[in-house]
Specification:
It is built from 10 helices and 6 strands. By secondary structure, the chain is of the alpha/beta class.
Length: 242
C-alpha cells in the first residue's frame, strides 16, 4: 500500500541549518571577545559547558517551568557560574554571544538544491522546538523563509516534539492529514520516531552516520530525500535509503 506524500515538514537546526558549526564558531569568537578564552580550559570544554547549560534550561522551558527570555538568562548564569548575575547583565552577555553566533550562520550545502528539486511536487513547512520569533528571523536571514508555507514552533503552540500534538498542529497548518506529510529531522527520537508515532512519515537525517535504529527510516544526506519521498517506506523500511 502506497500513501502519497503531499508535503514535507522540516526541522531547522542541524537539519537544514548547520547549527553545531555556528554554535562552535560563535562561542569561540565570543569567549575571545569577552576575555574568557582560557577560563574554561579548552574551547571544546567551554562549548561542552555551554551546551550542557543550554540543554538543562531548554528542558525547563519545554516543560513550561520558565519563559523564553528567562531560559536565556539562566543559560548565561549557569555557564558563568554566577547565579546572582542581574537580568540586565545576563541579557547583555547573551546579546553579545548571539551577534557572534549569527555571524557564523550557514545553511548546509545540500539544503537549497534539494528544496529546489522538491519545490514543484511538494508543499513545505517547518516544525521547530524553538520560538517563532527566533526561527522565522533565522530563515529570513538565511534567505529561505519564502520556501515554507508555515512555520510552527513549540514555544508558540505550547507543545513540543516528540509529542503528537506538535506534529498534528503543523499538519493542520498545512491543511493535510498526518499520513500525507513527511517530517525530516536530525534527531532519531524527537524527530523521526515522534513523527512516525504521530502518523507522519518520519525521516531521520543522520548526517554524522551514527547508524543503528533499524526501525527508523534513515538517510545520511538530503540528496537521498527526493527518491525516498516517492517510495513506500513506512512498511518494512530499510535502515538507510539510497
Amino acid at each position: 500500500m502506497v500513501m502519497a506524500i503531499r508535503a514535507v515538514l522540516w526541522d531547522i537546526d542541524d537539519t537544514i541549518f548547520d547549527y553545531a558549526t555556528a554554535d562552535r564558531a560563535g562561542m569561540r569568537r565570543h569567549l575571545r571577545a569577552e576575555g574568557l578564552a582560557g577560563a574554561f580550559g579548552s574551547a571544546e570544554d567551554a562549548l561542552k559547558r555551554w551546551r550542557q547549560a543550554t540543554e538543562t534550561h531548554w528542558a525547563r522551558f519545554s516543560a513550561g517551568e520558565t519563559g523564553w527570555e528567562e531560559q536565556r538568562r539562566d543559560r548565561v548564569r549557569t555557564f558563568l557560574d554566577d547565579p546572582a548575575l542581574p537580568d540586565r547583565d545576563a541579557n547583555a552577555w547573551f546579546t553579545r554571544y548571539i551577534a557572534h553566533y549569527e555571524a557564523a550562520w550557514e545553511l548546509f550545502p545540500d539544503t537549497v538544491p534539494v528544496l529546489d528539486l522538491l519545490a514543484s511536487d511538494y508543499r513545505h513547512g517547518v516544525l521547530s522546538n524553538s520560538s517563532l520569533h527566533n526561527q522565522d528571523r533565522k530563515l529570513r536571514l538565511l534567505g529561505v523563509r519564502d520556501r515554507f508555507e508555515a512555520v510552527v514552533c513549540a514555544a508558540d503552540i505550547g507543545v513540543s516534539k516528540p509529542e503528537p500534538g506538535a506534529f498534528h498542529t503543523a499538519c493542520t497548518a498545512l491543511g493535510l492529514a498526518p499520513h500525507e506529510v513527511a517530517y525530516v529531522g536530525d534527531q532519531p527520537d524527537i524527530d523521526a520516531r515522534g513523527a512516525a508515532e504521530a502518523g507522519l512519515m518520519g525521516v531521520w537525517l543522520d548526517r554524522r552516520g551514527r547508524g543503528g535504529r533499524p526501525e527508523l527510516t534513515r538517510i545520511t544526506g538530503l540528496d537521498q530525500l527526493p527518491s525516498l519521498l516517492r517510495a513506500d517506506t513506512r512498511f518494512g523500511a530499510q535502515d538507510t535509503f539510497g
